[in-house]
């Protein structure tokens, strides 16, 4: 079967990374069109990313949607533009891989989900690490060694330079008003959902001390998420999340259950593409020793050798989903559900920050 | 100089650990008396801990204070009894090493601090890890490599057995009503104070989802602590803490600053007495790579070989302070200040949990 034909709407930086990823899985999919605000910009992107001679350059996003050659679109536009272009893509019956966050409101989210459902197109968000085989291995280990999960602690942060804090789309309310929560907080939320087997939390409450820029966009935020108890006598299940544009680079994830803890410090962007690890700290039968010459915690490192980077795995999975629809099946509801739940929790976190939450 | 002569009021489990520690530093101090509710109990404790022939057994705590041989007392009594016995020890001019938490109210704390000051006796809390040479090494590395600190994330937890949750003094309001916050949360607070060079936070707010037992004693709690900004343009400084009697054993501490992160997973009770480590993740010049084939974080393991366990170091330090007072100096205000600040933050955390904080 010929590779799935992808069009890209917008020459964003993150699109370069995805062009590289699509190049790695060229047996599965290929970029056949790039649309930007001007044809010159689209052409420049095509030249820079090695797509010359293989992809058409368009001077508008609509032209990509109008191209009958294009089977699916990758939409890396600012969040504030998602509603318009998702609806247009649905109208054109193109499958959609959409950058996160999806929307700036739950209303927009529902409209997009409804349009994709009605058009019968696959909608998937661009969360690369969700498609990493390491995530599957983590799920298996959570079930086998850590379960039941009681606590998740996740932080994703980087220290944005002054130019970013002044100009980046992620600090502008109309473009990406969820700020750090929508950008890096998204991945922490996704990690907590993985840990709790994709069940949505029952409450999301911002911590005090959220930092907003002058336009009200979050630059730092923390939150506690609570999940329903499995039963009356069960301890509560929770997640404590922090995200930041003003801390140095941090990707810490600790998932603790009765059996142990799963730990990694590169959960979103792995330190190495081809060799990845996570650690399980085993707690079974462990206690503080009475005269405390130490504890007897044991640690086990899980090591994976991966043939392709996680973003390549994402494009394989998206292609698989689209092919299934093209073969007469339905869009993969698992991914749609994960996308929607992540977005709703992110929105709740933002609403709690803006509404006061327990912010001081 | 002959060893400092210590009396112990109460045959608590934690006292066994301290008898062992005092035995290790026998050139510095020694146990000469043990008082319990009955002389038989005191005698049994003395037999079991190898003090036979070296320590006198008393059938009351007061008898220990009345013994002119005793220069200082170790008070491992339940917190609810601290005020009475600290005041009596001060009246008897005995120096005091007091188990944490210190008090069940700020009023009691102030009364104890005032009495110790007036009597001119050293008051020190029983936070063993504070005296570990590793803590000093951590402070040095924080200043040299991590500074300025922006974020602290600390969790101390263990899964208490049913008998503990039913009967332990740490779940009984009149004995140790601060529960998990006073017991394990104390160490998280202390770690955050170490990270911020012992400055008190400006606010302490409980997270939602605190778990209290039927008598209102915290079994799980989280909190965000905020410190004053160093200047208007500086990012906020904060700590996110969790403590629990209902999670499996966890001692995670991550201190993040502009230069990197200091990380350890045994900050309170080291995995090994004689060989200890902590890790510094260096962030200088690090960013996510553009096409994200990975990040360039480097890690450096600091390894210490320690001649004595941390609780032995605590008894050396207490002895040093007492000897300085006996030589005509003043009690060490550093330790008194650290004790008092930790206690006030712990109290604020508890008050925020009980007062609603942002608890749901």
Automatic annotation (TrEMBL), chains A, B:
Any GO molecular function = nucleotide binding
Q: Which Pfam families match?
A: GFO_IDH_MocA (PF01408)
Gene3D superfamilies in UniProt: Dihydrodipicolinate Reductase, domain 2, NAD(P)-binding Rossmann-like Domain
**Signal peptide span per the entry?**
none
Q: Where is the Gfo/Idh/MocA-like oxidoreductase N-terminal domain?
A: 4-124
- InterPro entries documented for this protein: Gfo/Idh/MocA-like_OxRdtase_N (IPR000683), NAD(P)-bd_dom_sf (IPR036291)
What is this protein's name?
Gfo/Idh/MocA-like oxidoreductase N-terminal domain-containing protein
The record lists the organism as Chlamydomonas leiostraca
């Amino acid at each position: 079967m010929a590779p799935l034909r992808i069009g890209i709407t917008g020459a964003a930086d993150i699109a370069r990374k995805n062009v590289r990823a699509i190049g790695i899985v060229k047996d599965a999919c290929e970029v056949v069109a790039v649309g930007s605000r001007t044809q010159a910009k689209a052409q420049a992107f095509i030249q820079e990313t090695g797509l010359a001679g293989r992809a058409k350059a368009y001077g508008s996003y609509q032209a990509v949607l109008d191209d009958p050659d294009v089977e699916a679109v990758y939409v890396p536009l600012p969040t504030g533009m998602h509603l318009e272009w998702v609806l247009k893509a649905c109208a054109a019956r193109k499958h959609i891989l959409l950058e996160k966050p999806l929307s700036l409101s739950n209303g927009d989210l529902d409209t997009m989900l409804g349009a994709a459902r009605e058009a019968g197109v696959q909608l998937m968000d661009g969360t690369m690490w969700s498609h990493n085989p390491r995530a599957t291995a983590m799920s298996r280990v959570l079930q086998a060694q850590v379960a039941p999960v009681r606590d998740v602690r996740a932080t994703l942060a980087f220290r944005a330079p002054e130019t970013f804090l002044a100009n980046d789309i992620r600090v502008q309310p109309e473009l990406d008003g969820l700020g750090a929560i929508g950008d890096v907080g998204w991945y922490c939320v996704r990690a907590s959902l993985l840990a709790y087997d994709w069940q949505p939390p029952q409450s999301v409450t911002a911590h005090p001390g959220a930092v907003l820029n002058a336009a009200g966009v979050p630059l730092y935020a923390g939150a506690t998420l609570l999940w329903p108890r499995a039963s009356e006598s069960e301890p509560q299940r929770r997640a404590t999340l922090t995200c930041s544009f003003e801390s140095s680079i941090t990707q810490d994830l600790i998932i603790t259950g009765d059996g142990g803890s799963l730990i990694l410090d590169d959960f979103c962007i792995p330190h190495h593409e081809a060799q990845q690890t996570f650690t399980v700290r085993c707690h079974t039968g462990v206690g503080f020793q009475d005269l405390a010459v130490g504890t007897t915690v044991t640690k086990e490192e899980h090591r994976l050798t991966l043939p392709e980077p996680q973003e390549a795995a994402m494009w394989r999975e998206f292609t698989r989903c689209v092919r299934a629809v093209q073969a007469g099946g339905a869009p993969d509801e698992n991914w749609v559900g994960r996308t929607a739940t992540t977005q709703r929790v992110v929105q709740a976190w933002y609403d709690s920050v803006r509404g006061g939450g327990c912010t001081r």
